[in-house]
């Protein structure tokens, strides 16, 4: 085994030397880029905390730590975890503490640290760890979300019968607890439970113990205190399985009595979003009675008064999914995709009308406000910049950039992004992002690589660095164009567009991809004899559909893709997804499953196809990969499957991501550029 590992690493090293000959940026440099997220403004609006994620090659993982940008000062790293990341940062209501979650002592616990720095203090000591937490408005306690511990009966069964589980019954519910905040505990605790020594003296610290708030056979997956501290609103569902989310409800708990005083229970999913500043109303999203189309229908935003009365719908004419809802004294705010942008919007709570706060070519991430609602912090990226942290007053907007993450790529030959539009076969307007090399020559015809996003309600945006497991920057420097298609079903283009692939999966997607390819060929930009296509998840499915339905590509890469909708339906952990898009089960309408499955056209396949899949993928189970592989091999089509050991639906560690990049680099270089490559050596 050691010899095999050595050969594998040597091959990667050799390959990257080879890659360097045609590109100034190595695969490792791309994977090692630091990223910011989670910007959170202090209550007084003066300071911003945010996270920075770095690549840890030695441990084969990613480390996330908290940084602090004090008003007018250079940001500095606040936390340094020897083991585990520091995430979920929260300002105390008085701004004197920053709480965060970390598994630095094996289980995820709550820690606090002063904004001036110093040693972090652990304040929760829960045997099962803490899933999430929120400060109480008075700053004297926390609400915790914890997963139930294994019962004595469960332990007895396991001891007697070994390890087994009934399908869709292997889970534990999560419930709310409260924990008193004791900031005066010593940094180093002598032990974690009370014991008396031989003299009868207590030799341990009396640690604060969490007190249970909720009971019942359900799970909680989102919650927040009311501003007055009297209530907690939470979203509950029958169990933590993903399919149960379409049956979620909202309850308001009186903390003192532990009684539910208000609830929202529509037949579909209801999700708590925010409290009104006066604690009298709640903001939430809902699908109302529509239980069969929550994947491609817009969510709807409502306000309910705890005193009763009919819920009021807000922003009813906003044609996209609304996210990141915040309610403060100056209004209700949210973010949403608008074609290839993600902007910030404000809703007037009284009229329900909305307006855009910004309308530029940005992609805004999370938003955070000062307590008075007059100052805003957010993350945002653009066509020429990585995600950065910004701070601004609301009236007028005058963003001040806090971070300088884009300095990492200032000398790189990054992607030059153009947003282009064309008409698909059925007349639908399709948009895509076209990346060109820095030295693009309009008189040349270039090889074309098409990269297809997942979802299908994902979206591709103009960005200087992209690819994940695809070496886009290296291909651009090698002399190629890269097209990323926002095919029907993508977010950002409204509800009707997202529904255009209902009972039309694969078929309509292929129209959108191939019409985009033909658009570029007609403009004289692309050599039609030198084209490849790739994608992950839903993008992998579309790539598989293309590999069995057209021979116009020289090579295709299928990442975690669906090859047969029936195989997918009976194996996936999200059965409703298939029923919603195909509007039938395989037993009710086998024809639609056959029409939209790549395997139905396997005998037409001719394109050399690379298949990449996680060993333990539950979302798109690996049976799809083996089925496509065997079908291609039976037709004599060059095909190769790489299985990434221990992974689910995504490649989440840097070394295996490096391997996936390498595998794609080799495959397309061999079949598009005609370079001789020995795969896997």
SSE topology sketch:
Layout lengths: L1 H21 L4 H5 L3 E7 L6 E9 L4 E9 L6 E2 L8 E6 L6 E8 L1 E8 L2 E6 L9 E4 L5 E7 L4 H10 L12 E7 L30 E2 L6 E7 L5 E7 L11 E6 L4 E6 L5 E6 L5 E6 L13 E6 L6 E3 L8 E6 L2 E8 L2 E7 L6 E3 L6 E7 L5 E8 L2 E9 L6 E2 L14 E8 L5 E8 L9 E7 L19 H7 L2 E6 L8 H4 L8 H16 L3 E11 L1 H10 L7 E5 L5 H7 L3 H8 L7 H6 L13 E6 L8 H12 L4 E6 L9 H18 L10
Parallel strand pairs: 31-32, 31-33, 33-34, 34-35, 35-36
Antiparallel strand pairs: 1-2, 2-3, 3-4, 5-6, 6-7, 7-8, 9-10, 10-11, 11-12, 13-14, 14-15, 15-16, 17-18, 18-19, 19-20, 21-22, 22-23, 23-24, 25-26, 26-27, 27-28, 29-30, 30-32
Q: Which terms summarize this structure?
A:
681 residues; alpha+beta; Rossmann fold; 8-stranded mixed β-sheet; 12 helices; 18% helix; disordered N terminus
